[in-house]
Amino acid sequence: MAKVIEGLYYTESHEYVKVDGNVGTIGITDYAQNALGNVVYVDMPDVDDEVEAGEEFGAVESVKAASDLNSPVSGKVVEVNEALEDKPELVNQDAFANWIIKVELSDPSQLDDLMDAKAYEEFCNNQQ
Amino acid sequence: MNNKLYGKLIFELSHPGRRAYSLPKDEFGSHELPSAMRRAEDAALPECDEMTVVRHYTNLSENNFGVDNGFYPLGSCTMKYNPPINEEMAALSAFNNIHPLQPLSTVQGALQVEYDLQRALSALTGMADFTLNPCAGAHGELTGLMIIRSYHETRGDSRRNKVIIPDSAHGTNPASAAVCGCEVLEVKSTADGLVDFDDLKQIIADHPDDIAAMMMTNPNTLGLFERDIPAITKLVHDAGGLMYYDGANLNPMLGVARPADMGFDVMHLNLHKTFSTPHGGGGPGSGPVGVREGLEPFLPKPHVVKNGDKFDIEQPERTDSYTVENNHVGPFLGNFLVIVRALSYILSLGKENIKMVGPLSVLNANYIKESLKDDYELPIHGLCKHEFVFNGLKDKSTGVTTMDVAKRLLDYGYHAPTIYFPLLFHEAMMIEPTENESKETLDGFIEVMHNIAKEARENPEIVKGAPHTTPISRVDDVEAAKHPVLTFRQLAAE
């Protein structure tokens, strides 16, 4: 069973955002890393790039497929996880600890459109 | 057979200064390249004697696996038998020794081959006309989308830049749309694997004025015939968009149903799939594009036409415009000898036999699916067309994955199915037997698949460690993706 963490917000495309003040830490979920298989490359935006809720901001490439990363929220990128450049496999080791980008939220009300842990867990259970 | 000595890399067999050629004396004087165009140092090529070269490549060729060696159920690829009569036709001197620029009066037969294939493909699909120029499926997709863009622009409607593509589509569809400068709108699939009609309605409602086209593969990549096709085509047409048919999965429809009758406007075919020309190993491929009546002026040039009883070539107009109808999309008239092979296939089957291709490919796929569904998880039940998708082994407790099953099949002398595509299922295993296989071949494959499922339960390590009998055992694909070793020099240095 894939791990789901309380207090985070989740998308249907299996990204999470953890909110601390006005900064959102974004990554892919444990369910996503498990479905993708061994991650070999993470394509990330640059600091100061703008991301938009529901829009692509990068990609994760595994031995099975390349999948777009969709941002759960809009805002400006304030930090990217540079450790993933050399060690993309960290995402497989712990997808929640090894986040991908941090974003300064431009519209915190967008969080209302996302799933909480319970809803996301149910969503995953209904997936193939 | 993998000979230890000659199975080495050709670079490892190299000895400096060894030669296996002698060139004739230059009869036309010296014509050395200008020094600026010559390389400063010799190319690092292997140097071997002739027998070593012959044995090395013969060894390599014996490691090859093709449709002539054994069963090749690679889903979505239609790896059908390539009848030798196609090769005989393509080897004819009158086709083989002509030049694309020689006078048309001397190549009337070759032009007739192109013309007859254009007509045959039109008859089989219901389209008004075809261009044979694109050299592969994705090349056809791009050509088709350029035709659609040209159609919209000619009507003065240049804002249409959105292309709707189902989430089950081949990856080439969104790639072709992006190369054509369009934005992709993805439409979801329903739980039973078909286009989600409500989601499609919403997408069109959200983009009322800028839908250029919708691309569809029918049957789709799950091998399912899209039930709502008339409603889908009406919806897209009403929004001003055109319907694009990806011909990757035409095989089960051959002689049974026609894309134009389903409401499609533009389509491509893969001669290397549906029409039995060589597939894989570099092909070469061929991706003819067909258009419905009214869109013929947008086909690229050159294009073969018939005037009276003579065949002629319509050349592009000399203009400054870069519209597809005034340009070459490929060299001359496409991969001509592939076109010869496809026409040979169609004519040797004939009008009646070609109608058996679709039904037999559907029968074979359903026979395998129903025979294996107790051991393998069938996510979508019911009749499939030419192919179907399992979601891995039914018993997930063994830890044996689709990758392991695919590798184990190699030990039994079978090519693996397509794996981990489509992305709708995590352990996807996509099987397409084609129409050519005997019941004994299908039964042999079914028995081996049952065996592997049994091994997964009783001795999972033998499946997880497969393949055991191939010249190269399981490759580390993570390491290969992260640190690719692409040249011998790189290998030697490491």
Automatic annotation (TrEMBL), chain A:
Q: Which UniProt keywords apply?
A: Lipoyl
User: What residue intervals traverse the membrane?
Assistant: none
Gene Ontology CC entries for this record: cytoplasm; glycine cleavage complex
Q: Which domain of life is it from?
A: Bacteria
Coiled-coil intervals, chain numbering: none
Q: Which cofactor does it need?
A: (R)-lipoate
The cross-references to Gene3D superfamilies, in alphabetical order and at most eight, read: 2.40.50.100
Task: Name the GO terms of the biological process aspect.
Answer: glycine decarboxylation via glycine cleavage system; protein lipoylation
Residue ranges of every copy of the Lipoyl-binding domain listed in the record:
23-104
Q: How is the cofactor bound?
A: Binds 1 lipoyl cofactor covalently.
What residues bear N6-lipoyllysine in this entry?
K64
What does the sequence similarity comment in the record state about its family?
Belongs to the GcvH family.
Fill in the subunit field for this protein: The glycine cleavage system is composed of four proteins: P, T, L and H.
Instruction: Please name the PANTHER family in this protein's record.
Output: GLYCINE CLEAVAGE SYSTEM H PROTEIN, GLYCINE CLEAVAGE SYSTEM H PROTEIN-RELATED
What is known about what this protein does? The glycine cleavage system catalyzes the degradation of glycine. The H protein shuttles the methylamine group of glycine from the P protein to the T protein.
HAMAP family for the chain: GcvH
Could you tell me what this protein is called? Glycine cleavage system H protein
Species of origin reads Prevotella lacticifex
Name the gene behind this protein: gcvH
TrEMBL record, chain B:
Q: Which NCBIfam families match?
A: PRK04366.1
Q: Gene3D superfamilies, per this entry?
A: 6.20.440.10, Aspartate Aminotransferase, domain 1, Type I PLP-dependent aspartate aminotransferase-like (Major domain)
Keywords for this protein: Oxidoreductase, Pyridoxal phosphate
- A Gene Ontology molecular-function term? glycine binding
Gene from which this protein is expressed: gcvPB
Provide the Aminotransferase class V domain boundaries.
159-280
Reactions mediated catalytically: N(6)-[(R)-lipoyl]-L-lysyl-[glycine-cleavage complex H protein] + glycine + H(+) = N(6)-[(R)-S(8)-aminomethyldihydrolipoyl]-L-lysyl-[glycine-cleavage complex H protein] + CO2
Name of the protein this chain belongs to = Probable glycine dehydrogenase (decarboxylating) subunit 2
Which species is this UniProt entry from? Prevotella lacticifex
Q: Which GO terms describe its cellular component?
A: cytosol; glycine cleavage complex
Entry superkingdom: Bacteria
Q: How does it assemble?
A: The glycine cleavage system is composed of four proteins: P, T, L and H. In this organism, the P 'protein' is a heterodimer of two subunits.
Q: Which HAMAP family match?
A: GcvPB (MF_00713)
Q: What does this protein do?
A: The glycine cleavage system catalyzes the degradation of glycine. The P protein binds the alpha-amino group of glycine through its pyridoxal phosphate cofactor; CO(2) is released and the remaining methylamine moiety is then transferred to the lipoamide cofactor of the H protein.
Q: What is its EC number?
A: 1.4.4.2
UniProt similarity note: Belongs to the GcvP family. C-terminal subunit subfamily.
Task: Tell me a GO biological process for this protein.
Answer: glycine decarboxylation via glycine cleavage system
The cross-references to Pfam families, in alphabetical order and at most eight, read: Aminotran_5, GcvP2_C
> Residues where N6-(pyridoxal phosphate)lysine occurs?
K273
